[in-house]
Write a structure and sequence with these properties.
Length: 225
Amino acid sequence: MLNITYLSHSCFLLDDGENQLIIDPFLTGNPTATVGPDDIKAKFIALTHAHGDHLGDAVPIAKANNGLIIAVNELADFVAGQGANAHNMHIGGSYEFPFGTIKFTIAHHGSASPDGQYMGEPAGIVVKMGGKTFYHTGDTGLFSDMKLIGEMDDIDVMALPIGDNFTMGIKDAMMAARFAEPNLVIPMHYNTFPVIEADPYEFSKKVEAIGIASKVMEIGETISV
Ligand code: NI
Ligand code: MN
């Protein structure tokens, strides 16, 4: 069993009843977030890339909870330099943590810290936790290797950006769902800022029309899979 809570933008909290993993904890300065970093008790923090709307509050959350930040090498070194515990990984690699397994995938995007330093490659994250597989695609354009990722692992839940401009829009995200064939699709990375306005229900309808279940999550909502 895996509980998935959507905390807005690309931020999800995964909880298997024992451990908590937060992905891309952008809360401070996020106009749509309903909780702050002090509300987060997760001991594990995974990052798709270093852009401010993903790195977010990772370092303060890690420090407050004696937690561990899991990221690609360059970004892991960066957060370690800020005093957080970090586990360095890279694309294609997987590692078993106390909560389960993380594997980093490719993502077509960029990655720089808020002060403009190069932070390695952006990534997607495949998490196996609570007997389920959750694929957080990060910020990315569409790529056909999502088909391969879906073949390698039976994906229960896939989180896809739909806000366009910086990432896939609705049409490309629909194709991404078709490639990876997850059991359930959750849209993310939309309506946080005017430039990424998108209708998640339009996306949801289109995904359902190709035979894949989808769920538009309210901010703060939890689902169990
Ligand atoms: Ni980004
Ligand atoms: Mn982003």
